[in-house]
Design brief:
Two copies of one chain form a homodimer.
Chain A: H1 2-22, E1 33-36, E2 41-43, E3 51-57, E4 60-65, E5 71-77, E6 82-83, E7 94-97, E8 101-107, H2 108-117, H3 119-143, H4 148-163, E9 170-172, H5 177-184, H6 188-200, E10 204-208, E11 211-214, H7 217-225
Antiparallel strand pairs in A: 1-8, 2-7, 3-6, 3-8, 4-5, 4-7, 9-11, 10-11
Helix pairs in contact in A: 1-7, 2-3, 4-7, 5-6
Chain A binds a DNA duplex through helix 6.
DNA sequence: CGGCAAGTTGAGCTTCCTCAAATAGTGTGG
DNA sequence: CCACACTATTTGAGGAAGCTCAACTTGCCG
């Protein structure tokens, strides 16, 4: 039964993964490229929207600063993902490189023009936006009403999905506890304690603080699904 | 009576929010219409995606059932909003009418074709999806890390915005506590207690359980922003 | 006027947050 | 290559927000 779940999720994985791979591979192939150093910003919340970007390699993070000074990490973006489609005129959130990043940049003007000229371009854009929407709504559903442990389990699995390293069961996070905390909407302490629980149950272990080794993915999946009996 | 109020407010809504304003007013004008009774479903989570819908009048709710039997209300949809753009093939969530609803229905096939033929249609779709994405991401940021009281205040204000009744300061919710709770990610008891706090501070009062009268909108805004000193 | 569903209120408990301190990790200058 | 400084992470103790369970009140409809 666990097996069944695993393969289910690997199907899910494939679907998720292929979606991002697919986008505009061909359509954006000739777009100008920009190289970002780690921690460099592409744009800040409130900036005028000028381009659409596509992550070619590396990892980025989208976040918002809240009124009380806290930070909500909206999403992490990996190769194949698009960035900058949020609001109409101004950026909805800030986009920062976590690692070194290669970005393809398309001026909005060009986007509009291509949409006129190549209907296929528009379809791709729609498809991609629908994906992001689904992901975001998914996050809404999963952030609410789940324990910190379940959130962390989900995060780890989702991360596996993104990076596609599920065969090695070794994960390079490329981010600190604070990023995880701000993504999951909990404190760093809680993230740390949740990791401790996972370690205590031999579900995972940490090679370095940002390198996770997964020992019991079935349990992880059970936790993420909220199906696990002892979620403590 | 309901119909009249809703469609009035739809005009108001449009004025207030240029975002979904335009969408497909012209482009969908000739789409076939479907009438839904209150509590009728348009589709369920997992159904094959066959159409795109546009709410012409009334109010709908999008929700997901979680593994543990709980429900997450993803969004409420009001006149001008589109529905059904979530996932690729299957519906991401269920869509249910809260009130009587008039829906315009466009088969996906037609959507695709029009996207080929009329680039403007594609642009509109993209714009609309970007709006939904922004809204959803907004929800992510606001659901996390905010107290129940702040969430409720935000909800009330957002609802004001949606229905555009901010001049009368009287709100018809059209939904029970459970819907609010499932949207905000808290329990009905907490919603009830939060209402009690607002009443105790004379910020609002309840004409009926689903009819709110706002006395101190400034305080409500302060609460929603998390700026209020006594958030208790 | 009963009966049922929805909403409110109370008590105790759990989870997570906050504040504080200890430990591990990382990079730097000598 | 080592010691030091600084940051990130972990761990502990106590408190607060929200959940659960349960009783009570209100509203609505036959």
């Amino acid at each position: 039964m666990l097996e069944a779940r695993v393969s289910e999720s690997s199907t899910e994985y494939r679907r998720l993964h292929s979606r991002s791979e697919g986008f505009s591979e061909a359509l954006l192939v000739d777009a100008p490229v920009r190289l970002l150093a780690a921690h460099e910003h592409v744009f800040y919340e409130g900036d005028a929207q000028t381009h659409i970007y596509r992550v070619k390699s590396g990892m980025m993070r989208l976040y918002r600063l809240l009124a009380d000074g806290r930070r909500q990490v909206i999403a992490f973006r990996l190769p194949g993902h698009l960035i900058g489609l949020g609001e109409h005129d101004t950026q909805f959130c800030s986009a920062e490189a976590l690692t070194e990043v290669v970005l393809q940049c398309v001026p909005l003007r060009i986007v509009y023009r291509r949409m006129q000229e190549e209907p296929r371009f528009g379809s791709e854009l729609v498809r991609c936006l629908a994906d992001e929407l689904a992901e975001s709504r998914n996050q809404v559903a999963f952030l609410n009403r789940r324990s910190a442990l379940e959130k962390l389990a989900t995060f780890i699995l989702r991360f596996l999905t993104w990076t596609g390293e599920d065969k090695e069961l070794k994960l390079e996070l490329h981010m600190g506890r604070e990023d995880i905390a701000d993504y999951l909407g909990v404190t760093v302490e809680t993230v740390s304690r949740s990791f401790a629980k996972l370690k205590a149950q031999s579900v995972v272990s940490l090679a370095q603080t940002q390198t996770i080794i997964i020992h019991d993915i079935g349990r992880l999946i059970a936790l993420a699904a909220g199906t696990d009996s002892e979620s403590r």
